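I'll show a record.
***
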Amino acid sequence: MSDTTDITSNLPMSRSKLSSILVSIAILLTAVQYLGFLPAALHRFPEALVPNFAGYLDLFFNFVKDDLGLFAFTRWLTELLQVVLDTTANLLFGKRRWPNLGPIPWTAIAASMAVLGYYLGGWKMAALVAFTFCWTALVGQWKIAMQTMSVIVVAAPTAFIIGLSLGIAAWKSPAFDRTLKPILSVLQTLPFFTYLLPAVIFFKVGPTAGAVATTIYAIPPMILMTTLGLQKVSPEVVEAGHMSGCTKFQLLRHVYLPSARTEILVGVNQVIMLCLAMVVLTAFIGMPGLGAKLLAMMGSFKLGRSFEIGVTIVLLAVTLDRMSKAWVVKQPEHFERGTPWWKRHIALLLGLGAFVLFCIVAQFVEVASEIGRKQSLSVGKELDTGIKWFLDIGWVKATTGFLRAFVNVQILIPFRNFLLSIPTPAFILLITAFALWLGGRHQAIIALIFFALVALSGWWDRSVITLYSVISAVSIAMLFGLPIAILAARTEKWSQRLLLVCDTAQTFPSFVYLIPAIMLFGITDIAVIFSILIFAMVPLIRYTIEGLRTVPPEVIEAAEMSGATRMQKLVNVELPLALPTMAVGFNQAIMFAFFMVIIAAFIGTQDLGQELQRTLAGTDLGKNFVLGICVSLMALTFDLTILKWSSDRKKLLGLEE
């Protein structure tokens, strides 16, 4: 027993020693660089030796596009997709194309959706749905909202069908599952700009490219949740299916899929939310709708109107999220044999009745059909004036001016310059040491390979600036978010309130977070960091509260009986036990930060996001993928390392499920 204890106690020590050695070498290299004695080739990888990855990828893409005929095939698909999108656009906002059936009156859509909300979640849900659709119409944003929805109603079902099919295939074939998982990991960490350029090249600028990019972006969680749900089906349930004489297809249709219903519907929720998040961002490739309008308003610094559009996007996101989550928890209804058809489908009949009624009303009452500019209740101009007045208040101007001058000039820029001054080998050694210390040798090797590939990409400095933004934002988010979460976790009431805020904030499309950042800090580094940190703070707060709430009460009671003070309980008992759960929050905060830093390129940065945004103006697909893979490799390094530490810590504490 003592020998085993000695061995296990020496393992972390050897890992720590090796990490310390790597850090010491990195510090030595940096010191030599500062003294001016480090060869240029050790400071930055020589450009002459950087492989032309972008050129190789361009050759590959051109071969696939032209020689294998993919371009011709995607153009044919584009024509088919255009017909579907024209139909949904015609129905929802009246695009003058075949079949010329639209637009459906806004009141008919609002009323039928309110009935659906009532069916899924009762009167509160119905009120939320009705308010969201009425707000959208009354502030004059119905048409642009329906332009966005016309793509979502095509992209979300397509992503669901493809994701469900691939999830079933991955469940049936372990080899396919092993092949698919690393691809999904990369897809989930690729910046959204990397999805946009291929979509534009192969599917034309506009709604078709937007629909394709949105669909591909939303598929991974559907695959993962389908596979997870099918793997969790009880063997006893399957055995009952076999005993009743089910064929393989019947077993899948009537046993496996119904048993995995909850996980599959959680996947549907994720698909819907990712579709909404992505379709807003497709404004960068000419997709009309809420995203394009928001981009235009922010570009012209009309912050009041930007705020109004942002509210609409948030309301739609919250409504779709709540409705899909209500669908997850709602159990299928069962009726006695002989129940009349109309009783079994009363909600459907009420929805159709409301739809038909308001379609008729709209023929006679113009405002029930469409709300024009004259009838609009928009207060965008007044909000513009109010925001300008607020920003001109003395203490507000003094505060934002101080933060721009002090935090930006004295902290952020020097930190960025320091990171850029570190020699490339030293930087890679520091990341490797971090991965070794936290995750182990396997994670250290992955970190070494991944960051070495980033160095070989030729975009090292841009990658470091991207990492600087992520580190700065997550550090500040921890500084503010952790104390808030710890204080809230003391009482059930405040825990519930803050978790509700976090749940709501997580549904906000990321573009919305740029509005307060630009409003307060203009086009500066601090605006970039601010937009990232408020986006990244949500998972930090959420998982810290969850971690502290799951600490066993008997452990806390034992600490109290031993005479521990509140601070001692927190530091020595609660936080150590909550850390594995909190680590998931840190990990998600870093992933969110990598996602948001690319979007913050709109503000004006000098990182990979800015270069990715520039590639959208051309057809440089190879460069686009190289830049995207750089972001993905850095994000995956932290993701794999932190999750490994969390898993190891749970095993050590006996907290595994």
Remarks:
- The chain has a mean pLDDT of 86.
- Residues 2-35 form the longest helix (34 residues).
- The CA atoms of residues 502 and 538 lie 5 Å apart.
- The radius of gyration is 27 Å.
